[in-house]
Amino acid sequence: MQRQVYLTGQMVAETEARISIFDSAVLLGDTVTESTRTFGHRPFKLEDHVARLYKSLKVTRIDAGMSADEMLNVTEQVLEANLPTYGSEEDCWIVHNISRGLAVPGPDPTVQQGAATVMIYTQPMDLRGWAKFYTDGCHAVTPMSRIIPSQSLDARIKNRSRMAYTLAEMEVKLVDPEAQSVILDLDGNVAENKGGNVFLVSNGVLKTPRISNCLAGISRDTVLQLARDRGIQVEETDLQPYDLYTADELFFTSTPYCIMPATKFNGLPVGNGSVGPTVQLLLRAWSELVGIDIVKQAIRQLGVT
Ligand SMILES: Cc1ncc(COP(=O)(O)O)c(C=O)c1O
User: What is the 3-state secondary structure (H, E, C) of 180-214?
Assistant: First the structure.
């Protein structure tokens, strides 16, 4: 069975889904986006993702041509249509990409001339690249490129203009092919990873940058809530590389892997160099919340050829 995707009002087989080479998604990267994942085939916090999507749409002045409730409905339909292609143990992404539609050359590229291009699809949740980091931790590295400041493009707009993130991630891969970026802002404060938020634990306090220089991640919110519920003190604050070097624990949060521990930062061990107790506690708490052992699910995929 072919994957069914939603393209501007229609559910079509993926091979039938075509957009114009003149779409603003292609010409301008003028596209807002969301990525949600399922746990046990049920979407996790889909309402929050759609709410963030509609904030991105509003600020970027893209009219998706449907209400948030309609978007939720269509999204559920896309998931339903594709669930038969996923095994019972398998989960998937649900991705929204919405561009301003056809880009019109000339003096004013800002006007939405026609319908927005609304693209929704599911994709298998392939966790193999992350699986070993749950037990070994990854190597967090600061690239030389800095994050685009929110004064230029507000970090809360989840968008598909990904050139800056991609180049930053390439820079850290030059240091270590398995490195994950910790991108700094222009003032030298920790901002975020190319697709995740950054957390540290120091003397029992969980700290993460404020959302003035990073995406207001839904996994970030989840971790803050899980921590507060367990009596862990949390702080949203400015962090510099020094704080990461001297932290007891360091980790990233993002929709696919939820929590990814880092046991090295720019070549130095974080804490005692192993995955720490707070990360493990939070991973257990999240697993309980969704009824899936997040670590086991990822590690099981390594046995799949
Ligand atoms: C730049 C950036 N930061 C952070 C995140 C984490 O956000 P979330 O937890 O909502 O997946 C993402 C997710 O794709 C991202 O692209």
Answer: EECEECCCCCEEEECCEEEEEEECCEEEECCCCCC
